[in-house]
């Protein structure tokens, strides 16, 4: 006793898993997560802000349109 239905159930599961594995293996990588976007390295402690960042002087302009110009 106890071997009948339970055994069947387990077999059923195993087969399902096998099927799933096969299915996944056959997909041409479409199911895979896309590569994460390249992370821009953050330069910590770099003195200069990015050209498109708000100017650190507080003018509200972009750095390239404010103090970056003045520096030239
Ligand atoms: Zn500025």
Mean pLDDT comes to 77
From the N-terminal CA to the C-terminal CA, the straight-line distance is 89 Å
SSE succession:
HH
What percentage of residues falls in helices of 4 or more residues? 25-40%
Radius of gyration: 29 Å
Distinct small molecules:
zinc ion
Main sheet attributes: strand count, strand direction, barrel closure:
none
| Number of E-type strands | 0
Beta-strand share of residues: under 5%
- Report the principal-axis shape: rod-shaped
Tell me the number of helical segments per DSSP (H or I, 4 or more residues long). Answer: 2
Question: Could you please describe the fold and organization of this structure?
Answer:
By secondary structure, the protein is mostly helical. The protein has a domain at 1-30. It has 2 helices and no strands. 1% of the residues are buried. Bound molecules: zinc ion (ZN). Zinc ion is lined by residues 55, 57, 59, 66-67.
What's the short version?
This protein is mainly alpha-helical. It has two helices and no strands.
Keywords:
72 residues; rod-shaped; binds zinc ion; mainly alpha
What is the strand and helix layout of this fold?
Layout: H1 4-26, H2 67-71
Bound molecules: zinc ion (ZN).
């Amino acid at each position: 006793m106890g071997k009948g239905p339970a055994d069947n159930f387990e077999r059923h599961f195993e087969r399902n898993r096998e099927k799933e594995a096969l299915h996944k293996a056959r997909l041409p990588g479409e199911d895979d997560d896309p590569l994460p976007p390249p992370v821009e390295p953050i330069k910590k402690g770099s003195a200069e802000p990015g050209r498109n960042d708000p100017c650190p002087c507080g003018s509200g302009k972009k750095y390239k349109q404010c103090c970056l110009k003045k520096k030239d």
